[in-house]
Structures are given as structure tokens and as C-alpha cells.
Design a protein that fits this description.
Layout (H helix, E strand, L loop, with lengths): L1 E8 L7 H17 L5 E3 L19 H15 L4 E10 L2 E10 L2 E7 L11 H4 L8 E4 L2 E7 L6 H9 L4 E5 L8 H16 L2 E5 L2 E4 L2 E4 L3 E3 L5 E4 L6 E9 L5 E2 L13 H19 L4 E5 L4 H14 L4 E5 L7 H14 L2 E4 L3 H15 L6 H22 L1 E5 L3 H6 L12 E2 L6 H14 L5 H5 L19 H13 L4 H5 L6 H13 L1 H5 L29
Parallel strand pairs: 1-2, 2-3, 7-8, 8-9, 16-17, 16-19, 17-18, 19-20
Antiparallel strand pairs: 1-14, 3-4, 4-5, 6-7, 9-12, 10-11, 12-13, 14-15
């Protein structure tokens, strides 16, 4: 016998249960009529979108889900629909996968392993499932599992013991660098442990800081990847299983069935584009406005903005002051022309002067310090927000992870904005991504990438006046933020001097209050600033061991 499975790698809007349900119905009909699929498998919590967070606590959730299931039961026939949703059963809320066929719910599985780390809060909302679910589909015994279940040996082994010959795994697994390879190794392990083929269907799209890159795939009972859907593309992707006499579900490899892999720069860049695009479109912003300084961060952010929503919906604004170099002005103009965006030059000197004159009596007796530098940044922030209010454009902030980590940014100044594509991108990766973007088409002048970075808030200022080189800084930050290594553990690597390590870690700790007020942004590492990392702003922890 042969079973054709359609992997529905789709983007849903969180909370929009009605339209998400319509998408399930529409795609099920397409899978049946156009692709001749026997089964269609949707991702985890498809009906609510993912992650629904505290929408799961709304009193009307149960009513809306039951109504959605009735719609699917009534309107989809002649194809098995495997779909994810939250459901209240005997007074408890479960993360479920249901199998619908010919107007009946013929099987329902509750997720057993509930992740409660990094960006996941499943235990806040759901009760743990306890039993396997194996259903008969065209004579094959098909087991269900949901996302985290496959990261543990027990649920798949339990399904296998219940007779499963094929596992359908519904996922909402967010992107981070190199996670693609981790998933493959994981499924290889589960498949070979249980001698069972596994279909891994992943969510597609972005929700606030999280990006889901799709990449749904299939491994056979020997753990060999035999199908790979494209990355960062919505669609239905089919795979045919033949049940042999030995009850092994087999898939014959065919040319073109393995989508090409992506390197780090390509995958991160696509995640940034997808994250920004979905945030703009799902929140119905008319467009994007950003400050274009002539530096590398704003140049890369502008390129991502154009790739996300098109040049006709992006405005770049150069806001020069007396410390702004002619090189920066020239490069900003060239970037805007290369990308074809609306470009404005709004000098801020008259506004800064007005601030300074007004504040002069209060500043009397105090020497010049970073206050005057911050006034420049805050004047730019006010200007951008005025344009945002007037035009309905969202301000795209341009700070990178290295800056956000050590507080090298101005509250209510260059931190002003609704979203950031560089929030989780270290400066050294910003350089790599800029070179990468130019391989797709030259849009960032080379000297923007090669010149020493500078905020240009003081004469002849460069970032390394205040910070170590970004090569050194990013290594320390990666060990402290993403690996949680202590100062002494970092020093044990014998790569950095003591004063530098302690100074950088101190800067990270004391600037937590700034990061709490920063806009959300694309998460591309295993531990970004946001849902991943939750440290108290006020604390007496001593840096060291």
C-alpha cells in the first residue's frame, strides 16, 4: 500500500482562530484535489498560531476551538487531517494533535513533554499528556507526537510499542543558528532507536521575536533523510510512503526531493527578512522609516527592510550634526540610491542648539560629558518618531547585540523604534552579513564595511575608544550571554586580560534596564535578549565565579 502525506508548512496569525481554521480547510482541499494526498499534517497549535501565550488563558478559548473543530469536521472529507490545537479535556488544558476523517475525530494525542526553558513556557499553560495515540490510516499504524516529544526517547518508544509504523511529529520549532543540523541528528537518533520513519512538520513564519524557518523533513527507519522541504518558504510538500511486507514505511529518494542547505549568513539573513516582514504585515504598518547614519548597522538594516517589504515602503533619513563626517553623508546617500528608497536629509543642529540653550542654566557648573552626546541621539529619536506618527511608518531601530549587551546605546535616542533586525546579531556577524548581502547585489558601499565603526557623537570618535575590538568583545559576550560562563571561567580560556573581562561583564549586568526598554527584534541565536534571558534589573550578584 502507498500513503501520500502532505506536509503543510504554513504561516498562521497568532490568535486569529477563525482565519487559521479557514486556512486549514482550504489547504486540506488543495492537498486532496491538487496533490492527491491521503493525509495532510499541520504544525503544532495551528488553530491558535504559535506561541499564543496568555491568549490560552482567555475564557472563550475553549468555545472558539470547539467551533473551529466543528467547521473542519463539517467541511473537509476524503483526506485525513492531522492538526494541532489547544483543548480542554476534563477540566485540564492540553496541547493536542487531532486526526480528523470523514466528519469524525478518530484520534487525539496530548503532548507529553512540555518544554519550560529558553523561549518556551508550556508548563505555564498545559497539562502533560500520558498516553500514546496510534491511528489506522489506509491500513498503516500511524503514531502522533508533538515537538518536544521527539527530543526525549520515551514518547516515540511508547508509540512504537503501541504498534506505530510511522510517526507524524507536529512542530513549532523556532530558528536559531545551526539548529537545522541539530534537528537532523535528533531525528536520526529517534528513528534508529525505534526502527520507524518520522515526518517532521515545522511551522513557517514569524511571531514577534521568534522566526520559524520551515524546513520540514522526513527520515526513514534507518535515520536517513529522504525528504527536505525548502527553508523560509510556505507550501505543501508531499512524500509517498510504501508499507512493505515487513511493515517498514519506505520512501524512495528522488532527485530534487532534498532542498539545498543554507550557510550561516544565508539562513540568518533570511530569518531577519522574514521576521521583519511578518512583524510589519501582521501589525499592518504602512511602511518603515529608519535613521541612515552612513554606518554599517543602519546600512544592513536598510537592506533588510527593502528586501522585506520593498523599496517603495521604506524611508531613510540622514540627520547630520556638526560631527557627522562628509564620508557618512556621501555613503548614506549612495546606500539610499542603490536601494531605491525615499531619502531625506534633516539636519538636527538647530534642534540640538535649542535644547542646549534651554538647558544651559541647569547645566551651569557642570563639565561637558555624554549628556551632550545623548542629546544628539535623542533629537534624532524624536525626529524619527514624529515621522512615524505622521506617516504611519514603523521606526526600525538599528542597534546590534554587541551594543545592546554593553549599553552602548542611548535610551530614547538610537534605541527608539518598534522593531530591530540586529538585536540578536553580534557586530562581527554584522560585518559578515553585509559582505553576504553584497553578493546578492551591491547595496552597501565597501568603505562602510571596512571603515572603523563610530557613533559620530564627538570629534574623531570611534567605537574602540570605549570598547575593546569587536573580535574580542563578541567572544567575551558570547561566552557570558549565551554560555553563561562566569568571569573566572572566561579567564580560564587564557584569551583575555582580567580587567577587560570584568569591565565587560559589569557593563552587561548594569545595562539590563536599558535592554528591558529596547524594542523586540529577530532572535537568531540560542539565547537572545528577550524571552530567552531573564535577569533582574536590581540585584547584588557579584561577578566572579
Amino acid at each position: 500500500m502507498t500513503i501520500r502525506v502532505a506536509m503543510a508548512q504554513l504561516d498562521m496569525l497568532v490568535g486569529d482562530i477563525k482565519n487559521n481554521t479557514e486556512s486549514v480547510i482550504e489547504q486540506s482541499v488543495i492537498a486532496k484535489d491538487t496533490h492527491q494526498a491521503d493525509v495532510i499534517v499541520f504544525p503544532e497549535l495551528t488553530l491558535t498560531g504559535y506561541p499564543p501565550e496568555d491568549l490560552l488563558l482567555r475564557p472563550s478559548l475553549s468555545t472558539r476551538i470547539e467551533s473551529a473543530l466543528r467547521e473542519i469536521l463539517a467541511r473537509v472529507h476524503d483526506i485525513y487531517v492531522v492538526v494541532g490545537y489547544p483543548r480542554v479535556i476534563d477540566g485540564e488544558l492540553f496541547n493536542c494533535a487531532g486526526v480528523i476523517y470523514q466528519g469524525a475525530l478518530i484520534g487525539e494525542y496530548a503532548k507529553q513533554k512540555l518544554p519550560n526553558f529558553q523561549v518556551f513556557d508550556d508548563k505555564r499553560y498545559f497539562s502533560e499528556g500520558r498516553e500514546a495515540c496510534v491511528v489506522d490510516i489506509k491500513g498503516a499504524k500511524v503514531g502522533l507526537s508533538i515537538c518536544e516529544d521527539v527530543w526525549h526517547p520515551e514518547p516515540i518508544a511508547q508509540a512504537k510499542a503501541a504498534g506505530a509504523e510511522l510517526i507524524l511529529n507536529l512542530n513549532a520549532s523556532p530558528f536559531h543558528i545551526e539548529k537545522m543540523g541539530v534537528r537532523e541528528k535528533l531525528l536520526h537518533m529517534r528513528a534508529t532507536e525505534n526502527a520507524v520513519s518520522i515526518v517532521y512538520v515545522n511551522y513557517m513564519g514569524a511571531q514577534d521575536e521568534l522566526v520559524y524557518e520551515g524546513g520540514s523533513f522526513v527520515v526513514d527507519s534507518k535515520g536517513v533523510k529522504v525528504r527536505q522541504a525548502p527553508w523560509f518558504e510556505s507550501g505543501l510538500y508531499t512524500v509517498d510512503f510504501t508499507i512493505a511486507e515487513d511493515r517498514d514505511c519506505r520512501v524512495a529518494p528522488m532527485p530534487g526531493d532534498i532542498a539545498p542547505s543554507l550557510d550561516v549568513e544565508a539562513s540568518v539573513y533570511q530569518a531577519m527578512v522574514r521576521g521583519l516582514r511578518d512583524y510589519i504585515e501582521k501589525n499592518r504598518f504602512k511602511g518603515i522609516v529608519l535613521g541612515l547614519s552612513g554606518g554599517i548597522d543602519s546600512a544592513l538594516s536598510l537592506a533588510v527592510a527593502v528586501d522585506a517589504i520593498g523599496a517603495d515602503r521604506v524611508q531613510a533619513v540622514m540627520m547630520p550634526y556638526s560631527y557627522t563626517s562628509s564620508m557618512s553623508i556621501e555613503d548614506a546617500e549612495e546606500e539610499a540610491k542603490l536601494l531605491g528608497v525615499e531619502y531625506s536629509v534633516l539636519p538636527i543642529e538647530p534642534m540640538v542648539t535649542a535644547f542646549m540653550e534651554t538647558l544651559a542654566p541647569e547645566f551651569k557648573g557642570y563639565g561637558r560629558d555624554t549628556t551632550e552626546e545623548n542629546l544628539q541621539a535623542r533629537t534624532r529619536g524624536v525626529t524619527l518618531m514624529a515621522l512615524s506618527n505622521k506617516k504611519g511608518y514603523m521606526v526600525l531601530t538599528t542597534g546590534n547585540k554587541s551594543e545592546m549587551a554593553v549599553g552602548y546605546a542611548t535610551l530614547y535616542g538610537d534605541m527608539v523604534g518598534g522593531y530591530s533586525v540586529l538585536k540578536d546579531v553580534f557586530k562581527t556577524l554584522v560585518f559578515r552579513l553585509s559582505w553576504y548581502r553584497n553578493t546578492l547585489g551591491y547595496v552597501i558601499p565597501e568603505r562602510v564595511i571596512t571603515r572603523p565603526p563610530s557613533a559620530e557623537l564627538a570629534p574623531d570618535q570611534v567605537d574602540e575608544d570605549s570598547l575593546p575590538s569587536y573580535e574580542v568583545l563578541d567572544q567575551i559576550l558570547q561566552m557570558y550571554i549565551e554560555q553563561d560562563l562566569s568571569a573566572e571561567a572566561i579567564l580560564a580560556t587564557e584569551r583575555f586580560d582580567r580587567d577587560t573581562v570584568y569591565r565587560i561583564l559589569r557593563l552587561v549586568d548594569v545595562n539590563e534596564y536599558k535592554r528591558r526598554q529596547a524594542p523586540t527584534g529577530v532572535r537568531i541565536t540560542a539565547r537572545g535578549f528577550g524571552r530567552d534571558r531573564r535577569y533582574p534589573m536590581t540585584n547584588g550578584w557579584h561577578i566572579g565565579e
